[in-house]
Model the fold of this input.
Amino acid sequence: MTAPTNAVAPRNAAGPSLAKLVSHIPADRRWRRQADALIVIGHQLELMAQEQGRTAHVSLGTLRFSLFRMHQGRISQMVPFCHSITVYGEADVAPPDIPGVTFVAVPHGAPMSQEWFLVIDSPGFWGAMIAQASADRADGATRRYLFEGVLTADERVVSRAGLLLSLAGGRATIDSSSRDATANRARWAQVAYALATHSDSRRLDLLGCIHDLPEMQSLLAMSPQSLNQIAPEAIDVLRRYCGSIGEILYRVEGNMLEPMAWSCPQRPPAQPVSSGVAGQALLQNQLALTPLQPGDPEHSLLSEANSVAAIPLIVCGLPWGVLLVGQEEYDPEASPTTISAVGVATLLEQIIDADPAARAQAPAPESHSASPSFDMPAAPPAPPASPSFGMPAAPAAPPASPSFGMPPAPPASPSFPTHGFPPSGPSQPPPTAPAPYASPTPPTGQTSSFGLPAWMRTTAQPQPAPSAAPAAPSATLAQPADTQNLRSWPNLQRRLLGALVAYDQQAAEQVWSETCAIYTPEQICNELLTPVQIAIGDGWHRGEVSVAAEHFSSRFVQSKLLNLFNASMDHPGGIRAIVACAQGELHEIGAIMLSLFLRWGGFQVIYLGQNVPNSTIEEMVQQLNPQVLALSAATVEASHGLISASQMIAQMPQPRPLLMYGGLAFYNREDLRARVQNGYYHQGDIRQVARVLAEKVRGA
Done:
C-alpha cells in the first residue's frame, strides 16, 4: 500500500511505545475495558482541552487511520480551540484532509499500532489515557477489542509521552516550563465528577478508571449520598490521601461560618464571616494561604499544623462555605497538600451543586413576615434584548433560562437524586436578611474557566465586601393594578402561584379552568404559565420555595402544556419538525412549549420527550425525513450529547434537517454554542420561532 501523501512518516521505523512509559504503574491501578469506556473518557479529556485557550497540545492514537472515522467529528470540532492536534495510527487507509490536524503513520506491527491513547498537555491542564489492545477478546463472546490501560494526571508521564511522540512525528517538543498544578487538579475534579455521573458510568465502571485520584474516587464512590454523609468522608480523605493535619468544612449560615465536618476532638465554634483566614478566603473569593502563629484563632483548632490553606466553596455563583486545611509545611505555598485539597474542594462544589438540599443557603436570623411572599411581576415582564426564547432570567439569581426558554426544575444529577430531602414547607414564612457580602461575578470573555472553581476564574484582585451591605430587596408581590377583576392577569398569576406553593391542586385547577374559559391558549402560556414558573424558580433560588413545591409546580405546568399540545391540531402538510430533549436531558417543559408553538405556527410536530439517545438519531432522521430537528439541553452534560448529535447530523447526506437548539446550558456560553456543528441557536421570543424556522426552511 502506498503511504498516504498527507501523513508524516515516523523517524524511528521500530516505533516507540507509550505503554512502556506506564509499565511502572502497579497492576491494581490498571483497568481493563472495552472501547466504549475509552471513548467516554477521551471525550471528557477533549472537552477540557478545548477550554485551554489554544494552549493545549493533543495527541491521539487510534490503532489505525480507518478507526479514526469514529473520532473525526469530535476532532474536527476541536481544531479551533487547540494549539496542535496530532493523530497516530497505522496507515491502512489515506487519512482525511482536516486543516489543523497532523497525521503520523505508524509502521505495521509497531507497538503504537496496538495502542489507543490520548495525551493532553497545556499549562493549565494535562493528563493521559494510555491503553494497549489485549491479545484476547471479551471472554471469547465477541470480536470486540479489550484494552488494558491507565488514566493518569502524572506530569512526568505526560511530559515523557509528549517528548516521545514529538520524536516519533519529527516535530518540536512542547514547552512545559509554566504549569499551574492547582488549576490542573481543579479541572481533574471536573473530569472525575463527569465520569462518575455519566449515564454509562456504572455499566462501564468509569469510576474504577480514576485510580490516579484516590481521594476523588473515594468521595464519588459514596454517591448517591447526602452531603451530611459525604462531608465527614471528605475530611477523612484529606487526611488519608492529601497529607493534611487538621481539617474543617464550614458552611455559610447568614453572617456566620458554621462547622459542618471537622477532625478536631471538639466541635469548632462558629465564627463571623469577617474573621480569621476562613473569612478572608470567603470575603475575598480566593485561596488564602498563611503560616500559623500561636496567637492565631486557627492555631487552637489545628494545633498540629504549621500553616493553613482556606479554600472558598462557590455554588451557583454564591458563597457556600470554606474548606480549612492544616499543613505540615511552614511555607504554605510549598505544600503539596494545597493542590490536593483544591481538588477535593472543587469536587465538593460539584456534589453540592447537584444536591438542592445542600446548596440551599440558610439566611441570617431576622424577623419573619406574616405570610410567604415572592417576587411576582404585576404584569408579565418584558423580555430583555436577547433572552433565551423570550424568557427573562431571574434578576437576583443565576440565569434561569431553560430548555427553549422555560424555567426548569433544579438540575438533578442521576447520581445525586433530589428526592428525599425535607422541604422547607410553604407554611414556613421565608426570612429576609441583609446580604453579608457581595457575591463575586466571574469576568466575561474568558475561555479557560471550564472545570475551575469560581475563585480561580478571575484575574482581577478581589475587593473585600463592605462591612455592612444594604438589605436584600423585599420579596413581596406587587399589588395588582386591577384589584376588582379576579381574572386579570396579575390576580390570576398570584392565585395560581399561591395554590402551587401550598400544594393545593384543587385551587390550581380552579384558576386553570377560569383562565381557559376566557383566554386563548397562547395567552395562557405567555401570560400565566411562564411568569408563574419564573416566579417560583426565583423563589426556589432564594430559598423561599421548597424543592418539593418547585417540583409540584413544574409537574402542574408540564401536564397543562401536554394537554394543550395533545388538544391542538397537527398539520400533516406543514413543515415536519422533530422536537426532543438531548441525550441525558430530563427537563422538558421548554421543549413541550416549543412543540406547542410550532404546531400553532402550522408545523407538523413530532415530540419525542426527554433523553433521546444519539444512537437513534440517524435512523430516526432517515425514517421520518424531518425538515427541522430541534434539540434542547438544560445541563452542561446534556449539551455534550447535543454537540455530538450535531456532528452526526452534519455528516449525514443531503437532504438533512435544519438543526435548531437551545436551553440553559447554552445561555451565555458562546464556547458551547461554537461547538455545535451547523446548528441554529435562536434567542428571542418563542412566538417568533415558527416564523423564523419557516423562513429558513423555505430559503434553504
